[in-house]
Amino acid sequence: MRPELTPELEAWRAEVREFLDAELPEGHAFNPEFDDAPEQWAIAVEFSKKFAAKGWIGLTWPKVYGGKELPPVANQILLEELYAADAPLINSVGIFLAAGTILVGGTEEQKKSLLPDIANMRTLWAEGLTEPGAGSDLGALRTKAVREGDDWVITGEKAFTSWGPMSDVLYVAARTSPGAELRDAVSIFVVDLKSPGVTLHPMRNYGGGVQSSTFLDHVRVPGSALIGEEGKGWQYIMRAFYASGTVEPIYAMQEARLRDLVKHCRNIPGKLDDPHVRADLAELAGIVQTQRLLAYEIIGDNAHGRQTAWGGGVQQVAAKEYEPLFAQIYDRVLGPSSQLRSGKYSPLNGKPEAWYRQSFANHAGGTSQLKRMVLATRGLGLPR
């Protein structure tokens, strides 16, 4: 089932589809977490600039900062169509995490200077949250920022920096009050990746993409690089993830893949007569629908001012744990031939094998284990 939408929202969906039909180049499929070949990146940059020219980045932002002030459900529809089409939109760190932080905590000057550059794809952001030995635990953060006159000097190491070599700036969480409680110890900075002392060491990951270890060796940044207030970084990060009121619609991408799988099965005589295959397809459909309903529950809560203690954690746990399960069942339906990348016996050009490897990259935004801890402590009031 699908949530009922107004005629205006259905017309908006049609407008987005029309744009995608016209602007998506052949061979456009692109996963920004893993695809980094120069020719793919060039296609992604060109498409993303056309997308930005439509004014569709920051759809829910205030107009004064380059947004359109549309409701969260309109943004969710936009994201659903992008995911379903495998559209090569880049700069998700800038569009969601950085912009969300700036909107909830940035100064008026920062909102007017940084947000338009994100909305127009002039500045690409990489993420500097995760650290070796800390993982998803923000409380174990070791990168520190020390004030020297009007400047800050940042020292530390970040791990799993996606798009580092292609980005302009780094979103950095650093401790500014080492002895303080977590809620008062972390601050957020924007760091130019060309600054002296910034070093990137790219490394290949299991999914086929490149992420970097990022070293910050006494990197000096101006006082204006501090986003918002000192010591408010933890609150900014927690609020930034939900600032747009929307949810990453992995389910829309999975639904499109499920349609391709059903089409493939119909072309094989007797395939859909197999009860095991039918059961697997039904389970895949259930995975898609469960995530869609959880997503729209969050959107409805945001639209009506209902704030939950767990902040959408149930949906995030489902999305992170369903993704590898979806890929596993998908490959089971296809059989061993899913691993073939070319030839007439290769279903879907070998993409399912890559989807399986990439499905385990669930650390972005916090692992499912961390989300479960949030549900337990904030949602149920259990001790850590």
From TrEMBL:
Oxidoreductase as UniProt keyword: yes
Family annotation (InterPro entries): Acyl-CoA_DH_CS (IPR006089), Acyl-CoA_Oxase/DH_mid-dom (IPR006091), Acyl-CoA_Oxase/DH_mid-dom_sf (IPR046373), AcylCoA_DH/ox_N (IPR013786), AcylCoA_DH/ox_N_sf (IPR037069), AcylCoA_DH/oxidase_NM_dom_sf (IPR009100), Mycobact_Acyl-CoA_DH (IPR052161)
Acyl-CoA oxidase/dehydrogenase middle domain boundaries: 127-205
A molecular function (GO) term: flavin adenine dinucleotide binding
Span of domain Acyl-CoA dehydrogenase/oxidase N-terminal: 6-121
SUPFAM superfamilies, A to Z: Acyl-CoA dehydrogenase NM domain-like
Protein name: Acyl-CoA dehydrogenase family protein
Taxon lineage: Bacteria, Bacillati, Actinomycetota, Actinomycetes, Mycobacteriales
